[in-house]
Amino acid sequence: MTSIGTLGSHCALQVLKGAKDEGFKTILVCEKKREKLYRRFSFIDTVILVESFKEILEEKCVKQLNENNAIIVPHGTLISQMTSQEIESIKVPIFGNKWILRWESDRAMKEKLMIESKLRIPKSVSDPKDIVGLTIAKRHGAAGGKGYFLTTNETDYKKKRDQLISQGLIKGDEDLYLQEYAFGVSAYLQYFYSPISNNLEFFGVDRRYESDIDGLGRIPSPQQLDINKIPSFNVIGNSPLVLRESLLDEVYSMGERFVEAAKKWIPPGGMTGPFCLEGVYDENGQFTTFEFSARIVAGTNLYVEGSPYSAFVYDEPMSMGRRIAREVKIAKESNQISKIAT
Ligand code: AMP
Fold it and tell me: What pLDDT shows up at residue 22?
């Protein structure tokens, strides 16, 4: 019997609940410190306790997962805690195309794929001397927005950079990536692409609540000027959004262009399974994409009972976690596992 497994964090509850709803056995690789939390949920059949998630690379854990015919669903915690090389070396099948995860983690590769997808993207700034206008400094890798800052000129950039160095968050310029700040309403567009039906499904939209930046509006500007604090963009939670219906056509086009470009550049199969295009809508309803995630995002946790968009496609509650499990089921029944796992 095939089982579905994931790491205990990020969207594990949604993924395993969805797997259980589709009739799979469920496995959680769980850090000991989180055991009490996850034991509360009866849809988790097996818990593999570890000191650190890196143990998923070790023989003991691999053996247990393979004995259960597990397919691992990758999520943000896997990306942030392991290098691309480590992820690629996991000896358990990974749902989707694990080779695309490297394109998510590497800024240059990421930019290339977004350009190939003909997405509108913010300009990157290669030298702090060239900063003009509002610019965001971001750390490499999946830092989750921690230690990001806004700046408008080189002098201010250096001051904030040095503050982060003294806090031990970065070592120097090489740890920062500068990008033009995109104005507008942020939106994180959630998709699922099935390589079996060759169809792109739009699943939902969320917004992120990021600390401290989203709390700044509660502080009057004179007091803001008095505080010597660099507001960070650390994600705390997500809230739902529905889009004007007139924006939907372009939402699908962007997703399809991304899938097409990934097919060309990233064998086998390109972008399969869930992904997210992350950016902002300007006053003309034009979307600028500043990031993508090539796997399930935590914003899908909002729609455990289905979303305003999944309801148009499915006559049953369909979360992203359940959609993943459904794809595994279809692939298994039609002998096409190699299309949906690597
Ligand atoms: P990221 O790590 O790129 O997902 O960025 C974390 C957060 O920083 C995002 O959720 C946005 O709030 C913000 N952000 C990143 N890049 C930009 C940008 N180019 N323009 C505006 N906001 C951005």
Answer: 98
